[in-house]
Amino acid sequence: MTLPKPGNPRELLALVCLVGMVALYFGTHPSGPTTYVMTIWANQATILALVAIAQFFAVLVRGLDLSVGAIVALSNVVASHLLSGSAFEIAYGTLAVLVVATICGLVNGLLIVFGRLQPIVATLATSAVFGGIALLLRPTPGGAVDYDYADAMTLDVAGVPTALILMLVIVLGFWLPLRRTGFGLSLYAIGSAGQAAWQSGTPVAGVRIGAFVLAGFFAGLAGLFVSFVTTTGDAGIAPTYTLNSIAAIVLGGVALRGGVGSLFGAIIGAFILKTIAALMFFSGLPPLAQPFVEGLILALAIAIGSVDVLRMRHRLEVFDR
Amino acid sequence: MRIDIDALLPWVGSLVVVLLGSLVFPNFLSLDYLLTQAQIASFLGVLAAGAMVVILLGHIDLSVPWTLGWAAIVSTTLVGTGHPVLEAIAIPAALCTGAIIGVVNGIGVAVFRIPSMVWTLAVNAMLLGTSVLFTGGFNPRGEASPLMRTLASGDSLGLPNALWVWLVLSLALVWLLRRTSFGRYLVAIGLSEKATWLSGVATPRIAFGAFIVAGLCSALGGVLVAGYANQAYQSMGDPYLMPVIAAVVIGGTSILGGRGSYLGTVGGALFITLLTSVLSVMQFGEAWRQIVFGGIIILMLLVQNFRRGVQA
What we know:
The complex is a heterodimer of chains A (321) and B (312).
Chain A lengths: L8 H20 L6 H26 L7 H15 L4 H27 L5 H19 L9 H8 L1 E2 L2 E2 H19 L1 H11 L1 H6 L4 H27 L7 H14 L11 H20 L7 H15 L17
Antiparallel strand pairs in A: 1-2
Helix pairs in contact in A: 1-12, 2-7, 2-10, 2-11, 2-12, 3-4, 3-5, 3-10, 3-11, 4-5, 4-10, 6-10, 8-10, 11-12, 11-13
Chain B lengths: L4 H20 L6 H26 L7 H17 L3 H5 L1 H22 L4 H20 L10 H8 L1 E2 L2 E2 H19 L1 H11 L1 H6 L4 H27 L11 H10 L11 H20 L4 H26 L1
Antiparallel strand pairs in B: 1-2
């Protein structure tokens, strides 16, 4: 049921790659595929997967969101202030984090739709604002997250990492139903042909805002998950997530020009990137070379998304992309 | 010559900032203070000049921070060897580095048609990675040459040398934008790439040219900043990215390309520098600076859109 539709061969290819890489990783890992190893791998990949999902919703409606990293940082910082104390306080704190992140997404959406700003510039500017607020709330890394709560979210249930269960819930409980709604269909309609969608009565403004709100919400979830894994707040984590999220969705078969790809693909892409990083860690690559190799893989991943430019039948098609 | 109202806005803004600032701190109106600000604005202005060329094209260059960083690393490392020939070619070598990075940016954007926002961000990540590889994660050894120090912090004829550098670069750039076919095509592509290509212009070549000019400007900025600090250091370019884009956007250049005046970009660089100075004198921290910058960019873009909406 979770298999991608046959319409997107790149997604299927990504899934095959992922299965191969995961097999290689657990096959060569010194301590084998224990629950412990799996949990660490799944937690790291899940953070990126959540950011990639956020980026996916923005890209689907032809908007790149450069503020996802900043929203992750802001929610992480807010979580580090609120996720402690009684059970009631923690529940309220979790809600507050997600509300803050969703509001950030709403601000992006309103600026882009009603302010008619270019998504990339608008989100570049808001990322400075969100990042600044995060820095105000926590000038230096610190704070604490309730350990029991963090453990519950980052360990395992009967040998299966909680993070993987969360991913399954998002795909089965959120994405597949959403895909069947009018909203889900409109997302694709706007991404692949905005004007045609508008002319056939799609509420373009509302749906685009909705996409950015969802992006904010999932970036907030990612921020929460970062807090569970690190149990501290750090305002300086933003930049890596933004670029990695773009690379992840491209690897997962999402087209940067919008309208193509799925949430499932975004998750696969994120897991591929993190598995590559994990493999690199054990490959004996000198630590100093790792930032460069990571940058190279990102650039290659992004370039792969544009290979079809070489298959254009006529030069003019290039300009319509 | 028709003067854009959008381009005058930052000049008015600069005046307001100085006058308001002088109410609290009287020495804001002293010649010394203003010349120091002009010197600091020159660094930003040189970087913004390159960024503007790419934005006129309808693209953006986010690899400014590490192009600047690499130019600084290359020049200071060459000087640090102590060899007189290597010291003499320090500045040309840094500029070459910038040009090469411009070519790499151009390949991604013009040949593979990757959105420039994404590709230049990836190039920036790769440059960061190579610098970690090269320096081992420490501040690179080496120092600025006497020439670099003079360019960045010396004075000639009563004005800071950096200001002279900015002035010469500005004249060259205005000539390039107004008097050469390259400049005309640049704006034409920003308005409609398809139409420009159909008129027989080799559009990829123009895009390459624009990114090379941007790389050269970023590298020149790197040489100046390294000369000012007398060294290169890790992530020295990071604080410049937002102000550079802000300076261009505040100057009235359309982020979609095809429309903008260089006068506005100069005003934008002055305005940002003065505002930063006022904020730091008033003891605002880094966090508030980020919030104010982001807010101002959004506000200026909204005002531009609103004005255009009213006209249409």
